[in-house]
Amino acid sequence: xxxxxxxxxxxxxxxxxxxxxxxxxxxxxxxxxxxxxxxxxxxxxxxxxxxxxxxxxxxxxxxxxxxxxxxxxxxxxxxxxxxxxxxxxxxxxxxxxxxxxxxxxxxxxxxxxxxxxxxxxxxxxxxxxxxxxxxxxxxxxxxxxxxxxxxxxxxxxxxxxxxxxxxxxxxxxxxxxxxxxxxxxxxxxxxxxxxxxxxxxxxxxxxxxxxxxxxxxxxxxxxxxxxxxxxxxxxxxxxxxxxxxxxxxxxxxxxxxxxxxxxxxxxxxxxxxxxxxxxxxxxxxxxxxxxxxxxxxxxxxxxxxxxxxxxxxxxxxxxxxxxxxxxxxxxxx
Length: 333
Description:
With 333 residues, the chain is an alpha/beta fold. The protein has one domain. It is 37% helix and 15% strand. The protein contains twelve helices and eleven strands. It has helices at 15-22, 44-54, 85-88, 99-103, 157-172, 175-186, 193-205, 224-233, 235-243, 255-263, 284-293, 310-324, and strands spanning 3-8, 61-65, 80-84, 115-120, 123-125, 135-136, 139-142, 220-223, 268-269, 274-279, 298-303. The strands form three sheets. Strands 3-2-1-4-8 form a five-stranded mixed beta sheet. A three-stranded mixed beta sheet has the order 5-11-10. α5 runs parallel beside α10, α8 packs across α9 (235-243) and α11 runs parallel beside α12 (310-324). The longest helix is centred in the middle third of the chain and has 16 residues, at 157-172. The radius of gyration is 20 Å and the shape is globular. The relative contact order is 0.18.
């Protein structure tokens, strides 16, 4: 059986979605409800073009949506599965506007392969990637070196989710035992030498608990059984996360699944090549150059634009993607 891709998408301009959301968001005042969480840059066609051109081996794409469908999308493509939230998320959790709640339940998508890669819609494949960049010898590929959590500035929802996830990991795994069993995965020739040195030092100085794993902010390869196992061990926490309409400081996010795979040794060492950059007037030239030059396997374009520059920067990014992905994909009408 092959490897599926899962992508979450929301049309923040959909009036029906806005109306539904407004019934629940009156008391939400944090970053989970900001405009940038739902704003559409118009880049989605290039996500599909990149997948088709640079990862043609993908088995199927599961396109997860509240119910809206982009006008350009060819819904007849046999490699495309349109998935409504109600198709896989238990009814008691709906409606939800929280990516965390959706992430906790993606393993329930009907027809999803046992091996899949979870994408956010702001991360694009921009040069050829082999299947072995995501799965090797049947195991998900990821960076498994230890990296302490370091937070700067105001503590946001994602930082809370990271701390909560690491709490789960250290509750269920004995670091000494896992290092003994999987040392060659935590310290590997796949990683940079200085990263290996850091992991070695942390293993010696802090042998009792994992201090953190790297936040790759990249598409993550998963086994469905990982989700099933975490649900079995942490049902109350995942249930609470799933009930939240918006992202909350009490949540865990997909990292609890990713880090569970690392802590359990159920992964293949790999140094994921993903450029992450917040797009604004100061960074747009750099990001566009990286896209045109295909300097990385994948590029994540975070929304950092203000209202005055958003439209202009959107057109700049489209122009950059057009230089490497000018031909329509079979996923477009």
